[in-house]
Amino acid sequence: MSDGSESERTFDRVWTVRFSDTDPFGIAHYPRIVDAVHETSDMFMQEIGFPFWETSHDHGFGLPLVQMDFEFERPMRAGDEVTIELTPSLGTSGVRFEYTARCDGDVTFTGYEQRVCAEQGGGSAVEIPDDLRAAMEPYATD
């Protein structure tokens, strides 16, 4: 059991960098890295029972992206197996997905996506519903 200072578990997935993900220099191109990050958040939301493609239809809210930032620490190349770790940090009406990516134990990039919980149809920000909060909390940091 966690002492509250760290999440009880993390969500991570392995992204294999494909040749088609690289630029002419053989390095993973940043738009493909952004795609891999978005896919990671999609996978996380599905894992906790709130796939993005169902939240607005089934629950009446969404988690639109309002800000993102990344720092690249070392290049990734075709064939690299990159573990992308996602840790949510919950606010009242928003969640920040923190990312750390590693290849062969070395950090390749860190970053975050800031998302806000908003009513379906572009409405105003609302509090994160209790059931979504409960689903994220086992992975969350304080």
TrEMBL record:
InterPro entries: HotDog_dom_sf. Its EC number is 3.1.2.-. The keyword Protein biosynthesis does not apply. Pfam families: 4HBT_2. The keyword Lyase does not apply. It comes from the Archaea. CDD domains: 4HBT (cd00586). Keywords: Hydrolase. This is Acyl-CoA thioesterase. It comes from Halobium palmae.
